[in-house]
Amino acid sequence: MTEEPNALRHLIEELTTDDPAILEPAVEKMRSELGKLEGADYRRAVEALCSLFYADVADRPDLEPSADRATDVLVAQGAKVVSILLAQMEGSDMKSHFYLARILGEIGHDALVKLQDYLAEAEDPYSLSFALYALGKLTTPEVVHALPEVLGCLIHPDKEVRDSAARTVGKIAEAVPPEELTNEMREQMFDALLRSSHYHQAPVRAKSFRSLGKMVRAGLLDTTQTDKLEHVLRGALGEGDSEEHTWDQAFIVRREAKDALRAIR
Fold first, then answer.
1. From the centroid of its chain, how far is CA 199?
2. Are 141 and 177 in contact (CB under 8 A)?
3. What pLDDT does residue 243 have?
4. Which of 53, 126, 247, 257 lies at a CB distance of 3.0 to 4.6 Å from 99, suitable for a disulfide?
5. pTM
6. CB of 221 within 8 A of CB of 232?
7. Is the pLDDT score of 167 beyond 60?
8. Which of 94-98, 160-164, 243-247 has the lowest mean pLDDT?
9. Is 49 within 8 Å of 100 (Cβ atoms)?
10. How far is CA 44 from CA 2, 9, 264, in A?
11. DSSP notation for 172-193
C-alpha cells in the first residue's frame, strides 16, 4: 500500500462510511497496513480509525464492533501513536474521548511520559479532564511518576478537571504498590484530597472521599491521618461535632463518605 497512494485514500474513505459491511473489513485491512505507514500517511490513517469513535453506538450498536476493532488496532501501535491520539483529544466529543482514553490506558507505560507532558502543558479543561481519565486507566506502577501533575490538577479552576484529578489520585493508590509510595507522597495525596473534600462542587467532594477510601484500603494512611479522616467523614454524615465538615446535603457525597468510613472500621 505504501506504493499505492490511491489505495490508501480508498481505504480511508471506507473507514468514513457507516455501513458495517464495509467498515469491518476496512478496519482489518488497516490492521495489516498501518504499521507500514509513516509521516502524513500514518497520521491520516490513524485519524480515519479515530473517526469511528464518533458513532453513537447506543443508536447504532451495529457499529460498535468496528469501533472496538479500531481500538485494538491503535493499542497495538504503542508509543508511535500516542502523540496523534493526544492531538485528537482537542475538539473531540465525549464519545470519542472515552475511546481515546481507553486506548491510551491500554498502551500503558509507553503513553505515560507524553500524558505527563500533556497534563503540564494543555490548556483546554475538557481535554485535560480526559487525559486524567486516561492516566487513571494505566495500571502500571510507573504511573506514580505523574503524581505531581495530577495533584496540580486538583487545584485547577475548572471543576471537571478537579473531579478527574480526584478520581485519578485514587487510581494511583490502587495501581502503585504501597512500598513504592513514600511517606511524602502519601502525605501529599492525603492532604490534597482532604482539601478537595471541602470544594463547593459536590462531585469533586464525592470523588475526594472515594479516593481517600481507596488510600485507606491500600494501607497508605497512618493512625493520625486515619483518625482525622474518620472525623471528617463522620461530620459529612452528620455524626458528631466536626470542625472539618458539617452534614453534607449532597447524597453522592454522603454515599462516598459512608463507603470510605466502612474501609476504616
1. 21
2. yes
3. 61
4. 53
5. 0.87
6. no
7. yes
8. 243-247
9. no
10. 13, 9, 51
11. HHHHS-GGGS-HHHHHHHHHHH
CA distances from 117 to 7, 133, 148, 170 (A): 36, 15, 11, 21
Question: What is the distance between the alpha carbons of residues 265 and 260, in angstroms, rounded to a whole number?
Answer: 9
Check if the beta carbon of residue 229 is closer than 8 Å to that of residue 194. Answer: yes
Query: Which grid cell is 86?
Result: 493526544
Which amino acid would we find at residue 40? A
Cell numbers 472539618 correspond to what residue?
Answer: 244
Residue with cell 491520516: 44
Give pLDDT tens digits for 138-154: 989 999 999 999 999 99
Is 177's pLDDT higher than 70?
yes
For 157, counting Cβ atoms within 10 Å of its Cβ (0-12 exposed, 13-18 middle, 19+ buried), the class is exposed
Per-residue pLDDT tens digits for 18-40: 999 999 999 999 999 998 999 99
By three-state DSSP, how is residue 248 classified?
coil
- Whole-number Å distance between alpha carbons of 244 and 237: 12
> Model confidence over 60-73: pLDDT tens digits?
999 999 999 999 99
CATH architecture assigned to 78-264? Alpha Horseshoe (1.25)
At 245, list the grid cell: 465538615
- Cα 55 to Cα 208: distance, rounded to the nearest angstrom: 32
CA dihedral sign of residues 173, 174, 178, 180 = negative
Q: What is the dihedral of CA 142, 145, 151, 152, to 10 degrees?
A: -140
| Residue written as grid cell 485507606 | 216
Domain boundaries, the chain: 1-77, 78-264
pLDDT for the residue numbered 99: 92
With contact defined as beta carbons under 8 Å apart, do 18 and 57 qualify? no
